[in-house]
Amino acid sequence: MLNxxxxxxxxxxxxxxxxxxxxxxxxxxxxxxxxxGSGKSTLASVLAGREDYEVTGGKIDFLGKDLLELSPEDRxxxxxxxxxxxxxxxxxxxxxNFMKTALNQIRTYRGQQALDAVSFLQLMKEKMKLVEIDQSxxxxxxxxxxxxxxxxxxxxFQMAMLEPKLAILDETDSGLDIDALRIVANGVNKLRNKxxxxxxxxxxxxxxxxxxxxxxxxxxxxxxxxxxTKELALELEAKGYDWIKNEIAVA
Amino acid sequence: xxxxxQVLEEITSKEYEHGWTVNLETDEAPKxxxxxxxxxxxxxxxxxEWLLDWRLKAFRQWQKMTEPKxxxxxxxxxxxxxxIYYSAPKQKVKPxxxxxxxxxxxxxxxxxxxxxxxxxxxxxxxVDAVIDSVSVATTFKEKLSELGIIFCSFSEAVKEHPxxxxxxxxxxxxxxxxxxxxxxxxxxxxxxxxxxxKGVRCPMELSTYFRINAANTGQFERTxxxxxxxxxxxxxxxxxxxxxxxxxxxxxxxELYTMKGAxxxxxxxxxxxxxxxxxxxxxxxxxxxxxxxxxxxSKISWTxxxxxxxxxxxxxxxxxxxxxxxxxxxxxxxTNNYQQADTGTKMIHIGKNTRSRIVSKGISAGKxxxxxxxxxxVMKRATNARNHSQCDSLLMGDQCGAHTFPYIDVENNxxxxxxxxxxxxxxxxxxFYCLQRGIDEEAAVALIVNGYAKEVLNQxxxxxxxxxxxxxxxxxxxxxx
Lengths: 251, 481
Ligand SMILES: Nc1ncnc2c1ncn2[C@@H]1O[C@H](COP(=O)(O)OP(=O)(O)OP(=O)(O)O)[C@@H](O)[C@H]1O
Ligand SMILES: [Mg+2]
What we know:
The complex is a heterodimer of chains A (251) and B (481). Chain A is built from 10 helices and 12 strands. In chain A, strand 1 (2-11) and strand 2 form a beta hairpin. In chain A, 41% of the residues lie in helices and 28% in strands. The two termini of chain A are 32 Å apart. In chain A, the strands form 3 sheets. Chain A has a 6-stranded mixed beta sheet, with helices on both faces. In chain A, helix 6 (148-162) runs parallel beside helix 7. Chain B has 481 residues and is of the alpha/beta class. Chain B has helices at residues 3-11, 35-44, 49-64, 103-112, 116-123, 133-146, 154-160, 162-168, 179-187, 428-436, 441-452, 454-457, 462-475; strands at 150-153, 190-196, 206-207, 221-227, 232-238, 249-250, 253-258, 263-270, 284-293, 299-306, 311-314, 317-320, 326-335, 340-349, 355-364, 369-378, 386-395, 401-410, 416-425. In chain B, the strands form 2 sheets. In chain B, strands 1, 2, 4, 6, 7, 9, 11, 12, 14, 16 and 18 form an 11-stranded mixed beta sheet that branches. Chain B has an 8-stranded parallel beta sheet with strand order 3-5-8-10-13-15-17-19. In chain B, helix 3 (49-64) runs antiparallel to helix 9 (179-187) and helix 7 (154-160) crosses helix 8 (162-168). The A-B interface holds A 48-52, 71-73, 75-77, 81-82, 84, 87-93, 97-99, 101-103, 105-106, 109, 141, 158, 162 and B 427-430, 432-441, 443, 447-448, 450-455. The structure holds adenosine-5'-triphosphate (ATP) and magnesium ion. Residues 11-12, 14, 16, 34, 36-42, 52 of chain A line the site of adenosine-5'-triphosphate.
């Protein structure tokens, strides 16, 4: 599904990604971990097409398309979804209105008809249940005055609405209490199937108890320095990052 | 030569010939303004003596006045002797079909979702009898007259209801109120008159659209709305479709008058030609709009969506004379490219327990300048006056300007005045968030801007609000990135 080869990117003079290789197949869940500032959000942003980041080398293939050639909105329409680490506020625009606009633009791109009001409402009700979110929240201005947990849950609701092929969750677990964490993780799990894939960026093993990854990667100084299975996450939890840093220093 | 001068220059280059005698047979006055011209206009309209005198008085006042220089706008000097102040409504050559109309205009209409019938009406395409708006207007008028509501052109009102016109004309905006109001009073061409009798609630939104013979009276328009005790009316002015006019200077006057317990809700969508991307051309819109809450417990509410004109100078105001009267001002003013807007309101609290509310949302893009200017004046007698003002500015890009000029005068200690102001920018983060959800930039800007202006748009009548939303998006098209 996704094939990243030797990806390099910078912002201004700062080289942040230094040759990333990553392959994600349909049906898989990949966890990306790594110390603060190692480039996890940058990688997510580059995948989503944020223009502040200049790609200085490498290739990304997404479902047979050259991802780097696509505009951010077309990437979304092709099925890439990013749950933001810091979702922004849009005053005066409700989540419902926002989703209606998004869904209809995506459908138009795919040559489908816009959803009529009834079908949209039906879809919304169904997805609300899935992520256990209250309609009153969806009627409010997007993210405005939302608690940290509400913002994250709203991101997952949007993901449920748009049914992406590749979802990138950037620290969706941060700021969630135990119950919310379980609800969000359950939502993600319910949306999983053999045709889609998920990349989970997290600092905590805890989330991976709920969303069980097929692979775990450690990002450090803009490179994937170690990959493994879910046991790697447990090891990191126990030992921290120093042993990996040391390993690299030795090598 | 500056761009605007050029436009004025193009209109004509003939000098005003002094001593010219009035020839009633001509359809057009020579350019320039003097007493003869004022007499000519009045004679052309068969006006009664008192109205001519009123015009002349206004003209004499105007001559002694100077153009205001305090608005935060710049434009080349206007040569008032270079303007034609009267020309009879011309039968323009009507296009036979929409195919003959400027395709750019049609494209805009389509984006605004304006129906084909409406497109034809706006572009003057000859329409067949069945869909002719005149027939709609006739039934409409019959309904209103059953209720005793008077709704007609100003000229008609002068003929049919002189006592009402005489009583209220200039009662809210006196002839010498300001330079442009004085000019309008001297030379106004036509406009609308509306009277709602005691206790009547006007069952439909009144708009000039439904007024028969609403010919092009754009340049010096005069509107007078009188709401008698306990009555209510909602009035719509303008339309979202782009309006072009060969006259560059527009100076309209609108007067609203509410008696005890009456309410007038006045909504405007102003979309005059703003000039091109380089700031060439465009309408100068210098408007005086004021409402007088004469009676106790009366209410006047202004809602405006201002997207057009090269220069806007406009302060719809409320004089809260009656005790417990209420004034409201809701405004969205958008400027793009080289547009300049200096707009806001005045709330004059005279009566006791009067309340006013101001919500102003400025949006500036391109190289435009957008100023809010608002005055809240609480007079000595106005015990327990309340005002709440919210003035927000939204900037798109870094070449535009937003300015706020609040003036607060309080002469009574019991007053409670609250003023809030914010300035924000459409963030790249917001845009990217939308893009990431598959929403393209144009739609993203529309979404964000409409969200920002929601509080004001919500005040508009339903269908108008939908059109206004599209209009905002269209005005700002291509102003990000
Ligand atoms: N807009 C920017 N301007 C300058 N430097 C930036 C910018 N965005 C990111 N960086 C830098 O790039 C590096 C990687 O940042 P990134 O946000 O990708 O890290 P992260 O792995 O997601 O960290 P965290 O775990 O704290 O979320 C950091 O050193 C950061 O300061
Ligand atoms: Mg991060």
